């Protein structure tokens, strides 16, 4: 039982570090690109999954599965972030450009 508690505590310290790294990388990409959208979330997920795969010495197929999962989760999480931002009234660049292309002046209703 003590070994289970010890293992749980180790995992409890590792997971927040990876999550913090993800959010730090996402914020750095947002600042570098000077825009906030789902693309930054996808790139941050791929970056952190790559670092995770290298650190854990995953084989190439395992690293590819990890990257694939990172793209899927990053895309879902990023689109949900964008949807919440739109609901709060924040403008999103790619939505504005699509609106202009479709002829409604870049407004989303």
Structural commentary:
This protein is mostly helical. 81% of the residues lie in helices and 0% in strands. The protein is built from four helices and no strands. It has helices at residues 2-33, 38-55, 60-87, 93-102. Helix 1 (2-33) crosses helix 2 and helix 2 (38-55) runs antiparallel to helix 3 (60-87). The N and C termini lie far apart (56 Å).
SSE inventory with pairings:
Blueprint: H1 2-33, H2 38-55, H3 60-87, H4 93-102
Helix pairs in contact: 1-2, 2-3
Main features:
mainly alpha, 109 residues, single chain
In short:
The protein has 109 residues and is mainly alpha-helical.
The residue ranges in which pLDDT falls below 50 over 5 or more consecutive positions are none
**Structure annotation, total helices:** 4
Mean pLDDT: 90
Sheet with most strands: none
* Percent strand: under 5%
* Backbone CA Rg: 18 Å
Assign a percent range to the helix content: over 70%
Ends: how far apart? Answer: 56 Å
Q: Helix/strand/pairing class, anyone?
A: mainly alpha
The coarse silhouette is elongated
Encode the helix/strand succession as letters.
HHHH
How many β strands by DSSP?
A: 0
């Amino acid at each position: 039982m003590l070994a289970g508690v010890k293992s749980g505590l180790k995992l409890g310290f590792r997971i927040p570090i990876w999550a913090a790294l993800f959010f730090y990388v996402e914020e750095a990409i947002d600042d570098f690109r000077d825009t906030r959208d789902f693309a930054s979330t996808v790139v941050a997920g791929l970056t952190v999954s790559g670092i995770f795969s290298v650190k854990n010495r995953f084989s190439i197929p395992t690293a590819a599965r990890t990257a694939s999962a990172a793209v899927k989760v990053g895309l879902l999480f990023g689109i949900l972030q964008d949807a919440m931002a739109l609901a709060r009234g924040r403008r999103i660049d790619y939505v504005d450009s699509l609106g202009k292309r479709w002829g409604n002046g870049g407004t989303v209703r």
